Amino acid sequence: MEKIKIITDSTLDLPAELIREKDIEVLPLLINFGEESYLDGIEITTKEMIDKIDATGVLPTTAQVTPNRFEKSFKKYLDEGYKIVALTLSSDMSGTYQSACIAKDMLESDDIIVIDSRNVTSGLGLLVLKACELRDKGLGIKEIEEGILKAIPKVKCSLNFESLENLVRGGRLSKTAGTIGSVLGLRLILEIKDGKMSVKDKVRGSKKALKKLVSDFESTDVDFDSPIVLLELLNEDVYQGLKIYFQEKNINYIDAKVGCTVGIHSGIKPCGIFFFEK
Asked: What SS3 state is found at 61?
């Protein structure tokens, strides 16, 4: 059986203990506060980032994983006798995928597979877990690639953004729309579509947001044999409602928190569900 290393980036938003258990190598993106840069999840946590934003009033930017960092990681594992499957966040959201492809070309190795997940946050996380499952079944890197490419269109999510502030500050939503949305108490319901975050609905208040997330989940032919992720950051109302729903339905799920990179754009109160459809 081949020795295979699964490598990804820090936008996968899965619990650290699960990442260790599955032996996943995570390369962090950079979080930039002006001239100060921090490795996502290593040199700065989400809480520390939020505190720094509050203290400075500065919304940080992010920077992709560089080709050199991918090359260094790839070479390390190739030298140890591994073959590599690298999955990155969507190429429409970051240059990280292109960096991984450049690193593969630098090493001129057929033992590296690079996959554009067309996803981000726990959608990427689900695909990484799928790659680990296929690896543990003894499949080779080409077979894992085939399995992941088939799984990508089946990743579904419904994600509630309670705060519009960071979307406005990051230039992804106009100030006028953000002000109106905040005054009306609007919550954006987003999905990942064609490799990008897309608004699929707007609701007013956390109760309607919870109802919409549950409705989206129940209207999909969910693959309950695959992991389901409940993702949140400081959104107790919707989060607790989803927890109660899953418990009442006896649905197992992975409890995950939003990381720094995703949190910069989502604001402080995102909450949602990621899953595979059959």
From this structure: strand
Number of Cβ within a 10 Å radius of residue 277: 12
**Residues whose CB is less than 8 angstroms from the CB of residue 54 and which lie 6 or more positions away in sequence, other chains included:** none
Q: Is 35 helix (H, G, I), strand (E, B) or coil?
A: coil
Burial of 15 (0-12, 13-18, 19+ CB in 10 A): middle
- Strands lying side by side in the sheet with 30-33: 36-39, 30-33, 61-63
Are the C-beta atoms of residues 32 and 49 closer than 8 Å to each other? no
**Is the entire prediction scored with pTM above 0.90?**
yes
High-pLDDT (> 90) share of the chain, %: 74
Pick from 155-164, 182-191, 237-246: least confident: 182-191
Q: Quick check: helix, strand or coil at residue 269?
A: coil
Contact in structure between 28 and 41 (CB atoms under 8 Å)? yes
The encoded tokens of residue 129 equal: 């877990």
Chain centroid offset of residue 148 CA = 16
